[in-house]
Amino acid sequence: MATGIKSLADMRNIGIIAHIDAGKTTTSEAILYRTGLKHKIDLVKGGTGGADTDWMEQEKERGITITSAAVTVYWKNHQINIIDTPGHIDFTAEVERSLRVLDGAVVVFDGKMGVEAQSETVWRQATKYGIPRICFVNKINQIGGDFYKSLDSIHKRLSKNAVAIHLPIGFEKDICGVVDLVDMKAYTYKDYADHELTVGEIPADMVEKAKNARSMLVEEAVQADEDLMNKFFEEGEDAITVDELKSALRKRVLDGDFFLVTGGDGRGVIVEKVLDLMTDYLPSPLDRDQGQTVGTDPKTGDQIVRKADDSEPLTALAFKIATDPFVGKLIFIRVYAGKLKSGDTVLNASTGDKERIGRLVRMHANDRKDINEIGAGDIAAVVGLKNCTTGSTLCSPAHPILLESIEFPDPPVSIAVEPKTKADQEKMGIGLSKMAEEDPTFRVHTDEETGQTIISGMGELHLEIIIDRLKREHNVEANTGAPQVAYRETIRSTAEAQGKHVKQSGGRGQYGDVWIKFEPNEPGKGFEFIDQIKVVWFLKSTASRSKRVSKIPSPVVLSLVTQ
């Protein structure tokens, strides 16, 4: 296991995305085991210690991922920053903000189910950000698991440009490895918890199937290079070397519309082949957008281009906020250009504030390791920033730049919440505000008409987790219920009324005559006020000047009010 990398080309920022219960976290755990960060494999459900990346109590109890977790592993002289994302639709914002800063993704499918509803959602999210992907069909070792049916569902529902690079050896419970169609070797294991795969010859009953699958793979690969295609047509498939095939496949994957597919039992050692696919075919920070990041000048709006290089001015994006009980507010950042060190002063281009970096930490789920600096292309967390929110751009004060932020959907589900005791009132407000700061799809407001505190989220499970966290993390007991509705009356027909004012106490006196009319307005237009004022003056004749002054009425007003 390597402890560092030689260049930025050896770095990978990868997300694990999928439908709920497809096996993302299990695959992440197996990766930690295979790369030496764990000495045993803990299962997400029924395990003894629980998954590292599912560290929240709510995650351990429910056996699902709620918040994205970042880990860093090293594989064959490559550093791989992996973010394990939730699969439930209520927490899809975690996928959205993770994909915004990642360079590649592994899409995991349940081999028994194929493409599911949330599989399509995360696929669209990855397409939105132009993320190159590889596909891993998991659980094909279980009853009903079928690699080829799952691949067919990918073709029907996601993309025709998904091609197998590995074929599974065995069926259901007899799955014991894969055939690699690039080097035409078999990689097998006796038990999923083995430390290494065994390299051997392709089983005799799979030779013909493997040859046909490899021919299809080569035909797709040579489309990436015209010279390679001519060589293929002139000299045949055997003339294409392994290095040429890998290079062509990588080029096609980096284009973002071609996807390599593998499969197996994601609990164990087979993830070695997934790690190989990450390092061989998914992009480094230098491969995305030619290693450039585009932003705008906060003052002029002019376009600014920054290269993925430590010598460039600092350019980073905050993509996640988390509250840690030991260190306080953690801001997860992706550095696109430049270098960030502890103690540096940075400009928050989104707010115009300058802040000082307290600590830099590399995250392993909820564990932290202090580091002195973070360079271009890397992902880490910052401690000590006060006014930073999700989507904020952090940059050099001398060279400001504003990156594209992250957009989130409005939460559709709302409930009313109130503290059980008066002592919980202040604590509830603090707790809700902290969680709203962490989660941009969680909103809190007070209804001015009913006085209720209303919380809104992406679904019932989302809000259930919020209330549970409020109790466990902030010691607040709360009652929940449906928000009250402030019913209003409206005008259904036309009505008129008259009001007169007459006052005579000597002198000229006072007189007023007012008419008001109410009638319904068109639906949705609200209130509309129309004033119609008529002024009538009574002039005295010269002959009557010596007599008693006649009463001169004030203006006669007709006001028309429509609703």
How does this structure look, described?
With 563 residues, this protein is an alpha+beta fold. It has 4 domains: 8-284, Rossmann fold (3-Layer(aba) Sandwich); 289-395, Beta Barrel (Elongation Factor Tu (Ef-tu), domain 3); 413-423 and 433-481, 2-Layer Sandwich (Alpha-Beta Plaits), CATH 3.30.70.870; 495-562, no CATH class. Helix content is 23%, strand content 31%. It contains 11 helices and 31 strands. The strands form 7 sheets. An 8-stranded antiparallel beta sheet has the order 18-17-23-14-15-22-19-20. It is elongated. The termini are far apart.
How far is the first residue's CA from the last residue's CA? 74 Å
CATH homologous superfamily placement of the largest domain: P-loop containing nucleotide triphosphate hydrolases
Tally of contiguous helical segments: 11
Number of domains: 4
Summarize the helices and strands and which ones pair or pack.
Layout: E1 11-18, H1 24-34, H2 57-62, E2 69-75, E3 78-84, H3 92-101, E4 104-110, H4 117-128, E5 133-138, H5 147-157, E6 162-164, E7 166-169, E8 177-180, E9 185-188, E10 198-200, H6 207-221, H7 226-235, H8 242-254, E11 259-264, H9 271-281, E12 292-296, E13 303-307, E14 315-324, E15 328-337, E16 340-341, E17 345-348, E18 353-356, E19 359-364, E20 367-371, E21 373-374, E22 379-383, E23 393-395, E24 413-419, H10 423-438, E25 443-446, E26 453-457, H11 460-474, E27 478-481, E28 495-503, E29 510-519, E30 528-534, E31 556-562
Parallel strand pairs: 1-3, 1-4, 4-5, 5-11, 6-11, 29-31
Antiparallel strand pairs: 2-3, 7-8, 8-9, 9-10, 12-13, 14-15, 14-23, 15-22, 16-21, 17-18, 17-23, 19-20, 19-22, 24-26, 24-27, 25-26, 28-29, 30-31
